[in-house]
Amino acid sequence: MTGKVRVITAKDDDVIVPAGVRMLVRRCCNAVLQCEAFDGDAEVSVTFTDDRRIRELNREYRNIDKATDVLSFPLGENGEYDLNHDTGAKLLGDIVISMDHARAQSEEYGHSLEREIGFLTVHSMLHLLGYDHVNGGLEEVRMREKEETVLTKLGLKRSETYYMEN
Q1: For 6, phi and psi rounded to 5 degrees?
Q2: 7: CATH
Q3: CA distance 107 to 119
Q4: 111: which DSSP letter?
Q5: Does residue 164 form part of some domain?
Q6: 163 inside domain
Q7: Tag placement on the chain: N or C end, fewer CB within 10 Å?
Q8: Which of 27, 39, 31 is nearest to 3 (CA)?
Q9: Mean predicted lDDT score pLDDT of the chain
Q10: Which residues, at least 6 apart from 45, have a Cβ–Cβ distance to it below 8 Å?
Q11: Are 157 and 148 in contact (CB under 8 A)?
């Protein structure tokens, strides 16, 4: 039986986050945990920022000096997580989403901003749970299938104009 996720959201002062996005992020996080049959309650921190700040974080933590759409900072490893001692929830980690990138990619791929933010959230949640796509192969295929399964369940399935660059 799966638990529930507590999503803590924040934004940089100069970043505009459309109404309903926080609710969408919570729905996406819960859907991933449900699909993964995650046992127990969980806590995730999601921050909305701009390209300038996400570039700084990418440079600092990944040694990549460019902006990106989303960063994931897992707190657990091999299914083991620290606990929030007040709530008993497992601390999964942090997600940082660039609203600049999300807006640009939604236009580029021809789908809604809602779909793009949903994708970025689901993608990052899977990273927090230990999935990876960096090395390609079966791992990448498995992660992509899980992303699309969750997004379809949420009514955010891929449109025919959506594509991904390698």
Answers
A1: -100, 120
A2: 3.40.390.30
A3: 14
A4: S
A5: no
A6: no
A7: C
A8: 39
A9: 88
A10: 7, 8, 9, 10, 93, 94, 95
A11: yes
